[in-house]
Prior knowledge:
By secondary structure, the protein is of the alpha/beta class. It has helices at residues 43-56, 68-79, 93-101, 111-114, 117-129, 145-151, 156-172, 187-200, 215-231, 246-259, 282-292, 311-315, 347-364; strands at residues 17-19, 22-24, 31-35, 60-64, 85-88, 106-109, 133-139, 178-183, 206-207, 237-239, 267-271, 300-305, 320-323, 329-334, 337-343.
Amino acid sequence: MSLRPFRDIKRKKTKVISVGKVKIGGYFPIAVQSMTNTLTTDVKATINQINELHDAGADFVRVSCPDKESSLSLKEIIKNVKVPIVADVHFHYKRAIEAAESGAHCLRINPGNIGSKERVYEILKSAKDNNCSVRIGVNAGSLEKTILEKYKEPCPEAMVESALEKIKIFEDKNFFNFKISVKSSDVFLSVKAYRSLSEQCDYPLHLGITEAGSLIPGSVKSSIGLGKLLMEGIGDTIRVSLSANPVEEIKVGFEILKSLNLRHRGVNIISCPSCARQAFPVIETVKNLEKKLEHIKTPMTLSIIGCVVNGPGEAAQTQIGLTGGGKGNNMVYISGVPHHKVASKNIISHIVKLAEEKSIELKRK
């Protein structure tokens, strides 16, 4: 546990569904996910990327199935990964059926582009027969023609109406093992749509700001949109959609959850921006520590502050703290208490050693 004080967020309790071994909804941990960008038919490359995402903390991973060869490739892929797989299907209902039969743990479909209700019913039958959950994916960029004709443009009301129509299709077939998303690249539109949908149903919600952009702009947009909803207790699983390495999506997702005290994984580093008072190169130190501490999965807090202005106060609230001192002698704090000094040249190796020891200690508790 962090020594840092926090406020609890009261989450809305939703229905609970399963994506393989992962429970979504209720008060289960908010799941973090990403999507592969390899060709699914390149089985080896896809397996390698899924395993990288799993190592980074992904609770499940989405894989695109645009053709029969891709959906059938899931059989071999699923045998060689440890994380549940979500099959992403558009337009072709048979791909969804093939994916379910190939062992997919969840199907991501937009019933609006699948075709007739009968085709959706066939997907639901296959999903039920294969113990496979479904995500209803409503996207502002692909609303059905009748909805757009009614509202003239994508808006929160249009997205929610589309979602509620799809929910009724599922409920009419007594299929309740599903979650829903109403995503847009517009932060305000997304927030309003999710908020409205949350008021009108209690199915688990998958949050995302779709097509958010590259690493920095996309992370900012996602943090604002997802952060706002999560602070209101809305959301059961998230994806940060970035034009970047998918592993970055997982990292940013966990940082969002960490900042709201909703979920903790690995070392949470509190660091200053550095200034002329710094007693050691803060920016380079933090950059190196982030890389060298990636292997630690145990939640813990670490403060790296370059001088004594805020250093002691921050260190008092973290499990391991470092405050810059004069003549290259920097104070190390353990559990908020001054403990010993370390020379600037030894900071990286020393802090890594302390973090590894702390990780072992915390695992024993």
